[in-house]
Amino acid sequence: MKPQEPTYFNKEARLAFWMLVPAFAVVLVFVIFPVIWNVWLSLKPVFLEDLGGLSLFEFNLTLENFRKVFCDQDFVPVLKTTLIYTVGGSLLSILLGFMAALLVHGQFPGRSLLRGLFISPYIAPVVAVTFTWSFILDPQLGVLNWLAVNGGLLAQPIPFFSQRWLELDIMGMRLPLPIALISVILFEGWRYFPFAFLFILARLQAIPDELYQAASVDGASPFQRFYHITLPHLATVLSTLFLFRFIWTINKFDDIFLLTRGQAGTKVMTIKVYDYAFGEFDIGASSAVAMVLFGILSLFIFIYFRWIVRE
To answer: Counting C-beta atoms within 10 Å of the first and last residue's C-beta, which end of the chain has fewer, N or C?
Structure first.
């Protein structure tokens, strides 16, 4: 009996399968395997000198690394700092991007130049911008402290990246501010607002002008047009931006490491991963912190898609 020739549909399905193989292989090698490897390391007492003799087929697993992480006296403060830094930096970058998008949405001379300037913080090398911020805010050589002291606004310079608390005297009340943490949050918002700016501006330009014209004819004020037309059209973009920024910010390491090395109350979970791995050479504990960070992200994404997006 002559074998049946494959149909056009079967040939197309087979071609699609083989075209997906390279992408699946890349995901397997660079995403799935590292996750499995990290989970496995977090369940073993592994130090840096032990990495060369490890075998995937050794199953003497333990929760000792997680016990060490959760019993560490720095765990709760670091977790709190991480969440404050992540939420604050994400919201600030979106707010600045929103304001910048509204500013350049209309027609005026030099709009293209201003758009290019707004994108510059995002494309500049992180080493260059962190060095610039450190120099500007330096208590001895920084131009900001020099202007504030000589202008009579400050009695003495403020070490923005090396002082944990700054006490403000407001009408006889002492208000402590975490000045170093606020400084790195401000840097995070400034550094990454161009990403939100581009998304929000693109969505603003897609809103039909007829809606604003009809609202003006009906007597709507600028605030009413903004609240009832602009914000509803931007809701999906803003929620998606917050999801992206939260995921990227909570995994940020280089910004804080270059600005403060995690000192003065700015130590976050990613810095803790580095401290365990290259400070104590405890790879197992470092992997356990990474898994805790993964769990926080998974919980946030579940809540986000379960309630926030649905609303």
So the answer is: N
